[in-house]
Design goal:
By secondary structure, this protein is an all-alpha fold. The protein is built from four helices and no strands. The chain is 89% helix and 0% strand.
C-alpha cells in the first residue's frame, strides 16, 4: 500500500512537469517561428534601404524610377507571398502533429480546426491581394499626378497608408473575433 501511494505521489508530481515541457516545446516553436519572421523582415528592410539608395542619383529619370519602384514592389510582394505560404505550411504541419497527439478531440473536430485554419489563411490571402491591388492603383494615381509637389505626394501617400493601416487593423480584429467564436463553438456545451 505504501509503495502504491509513493508511486501515485511521484506520478502526480511529474504530470505538471510533463505539461510544462509540452508548453515549453510549443513556446519554443512559436518563438523560433517569430524569430524567422523577424529575420525575414529585417532582410527586407535592408533590401529596401539598398534599393532606395540605388534610386538616388541623377542617372535615372522620373519614369525609370517609377518603373523600378513598381518592379521592386512586385518582386517583394511575390517573395512575401512565398514566405507566408512557407510559414503557413509549417504551421499546418505543426498543428497536424499536435492534433494527432490530442485524444480529447474527435476526428470531426480536428478536421473542423484544420478547415478553419485554411479558411482564415485563404481570407488573409484574398485581403492582402486586394490591398496590394489598391496600393498599386493609389501609388499610380499619386505618382502620376504631376501637379503635386514631392512634399504633397508624400503627404498623400501618408494619408493613404493611414487609411490602409486602419483597414488592416479592422481585418485583424475581425479575424480575431472569428477565431474566438470558433474556439467557443468547440467547447462542450453545458
Amino acid at each position: 500500500m505504501k509503495k502504491i501511494l509513493t508511486i501515485l505521489a511521484v506520478v502526480i508530481l511529474l504530470l505538471p512537469l510533463k505539461a510544462s515541457a509540452e508548453a515549453r516545446e510549443g513556446g519554443e516553436w512559436r518563438n523560433a517561428r517569430k524569430a524567422r519572421a523577424q529575420a525575414y523582415r529585417e532582410q527586407q528592410k535592408k533590401e529596401n534601404k539598398a534599393f532606395r539608395q540605388s534610386l538616388r542619383g541623377p542617372d535615372m529619370g522620373r519614369d525609370q524610377k517609377i518603373a523600378a519602384i513598381k518592379e521592386h514592389r512586385q518582386t517583394q510582394y511575390g517573395e512575401n507571398a512565398a514566405f507566408r505560404e512557407q510559414q503557413h505550411q509549417e504551421g499546418v504541419n505543426h498543428l497536424n502533429d499536435k492534433l494527432a497527439q490530442n485524444n480529447k478531440l474527435t476526428d470531426t473536430q480536428k478536421q473542423e480546426i484544420l478547415n478553419h485554419v485554411e479558411t482564415q489563411y485563404r481570407e488573409n490571402i484574398a485581403f492582402r491581394d486586394q490591398q496590394h491591388t489598391e496600393n498599386i492603383s493609389a501609388m499610380d494615381q499619386i505618382l502620376g499626378d504631376l501637379n503635386l509637389s514631392p512634399e504633397e505626394r508624400r503627404a498623400e501617400m501618408k494619408k493613404y497608408r493611414a487609411v490602409q493601416k486602419e483597414e488592416n487593423k479592422q481585418h485583424r480584429q475581425t479575424q480575431k473575433e472569428e477565431n474566438q467564436t470558433f474556439r467557443q463553438s468547440l467547447k462542450p456545451q453545458e
